[in-house]
Amino acid sequence: MAETPNPTRMELIKARGRIRLAKKGHSLLKQKRDVLIMEFFKILSKAKDLRTELNDEMRRAYMALAVAQAYHGVAEVENIARAVRKAPGVDIEVKNVMGLRISHIKSEANEHTLMERGYSVVGSSAKIDEAAGEFEKVLTLVVRLAETENAIRKLIREIEKTKRRVNALEFVLLPRLDAQAKLISFRLQEMERDSFVMLKTIKRKLARAGEEAANGNGKARRNGNPNHN
User: Fold this and answer.
1) Rg, Å, the chain Cα set
2) pLDDT tens figures, 174-201
3) 22-40 residues labelled b (16+ CB within 10 A) or e (exposed)
């Protein structure tokens, strides 16, 4: 059960102050929600393009690998793959979107030279280099797609949370605060009317008492005056 506010002017001022604060918060949250939604659709479009690009690049990479395996044999390609240096690292930066921290991933994956890849020239060929280059492109796209999909998940969660807060303010808190302010104002008006009526009543009683006292004094003077006819 909601607490009944005290019908005082101080409580009315406080209630109106809370209403102004809630309206300001509601406006800011709506702006945040709109910005997050715009960012979501921008990243979603980017993710769709990246998925298409990744699928195309995966087909090219596996085709190049199949050619290399046909040329060198599966065992030889596996031996060359074991000689490749460790996977490239990533550098993560944080982007702030309306208070939401979104990770920006920078990968060290790029097109390496033969010496940078680590496998020996002996036993390899341009077919191996082509397959390695295509898979490096795949890795770069995978990292970029992981960044966008991670951002999409975070944005969805934040948008839902922000929408719940906007709805709570709009449909729960603000109506309750408005009702409290109206109740306090109504009771204050009632108290003012009651006070006005009471003062009028007291004024009439005082006036009547004054008249009665004046009449009583007049009678007493007449009764005490022997020459009065």
Assistant:
1) 42
2) 999 999 999 998 888 888 888 888 888 8
3) beeebeebbebbeebeebb
Inform me whether the pLDDT recorded for 120 exceeds 50: yes
Task: Give the pTM.
Answer: 0.69
| Mean predicted lDDT score pLDDT of the chain | 83
How far from chain centre, in Å, is Cα 7?
A: 35
Give the count of domains, the chain.
1
Structure tokens belonging to residue 209: 């008492």
Question: Residue 107's beta-bridge partner residues?
Answer: 90
Q: Where does the chain have alpha helices with state H?
A: 9-72, 74-82, 114-117, 126-168, 174-224
Q: How many CA atoms lie within 13 A of 46 on its CB side?
A: 16
Does 1 reside within a domain?
Answer: no
Residue 25's CATH number: 1.10.287.3240
Here the tokens at position 107 are 């990968």
The CA distance from 139 to 111, in Å, is 10
φ, ψ of residue 13 in degrees (nearest 5): -65, -45
Write out pLDDT tens, residues 125-169: 788 888 888 988 898 899 889 889 999 999 999 999 999 999 999
Backbone angles phi, psi at 157, to 5 degrees: -60, -45
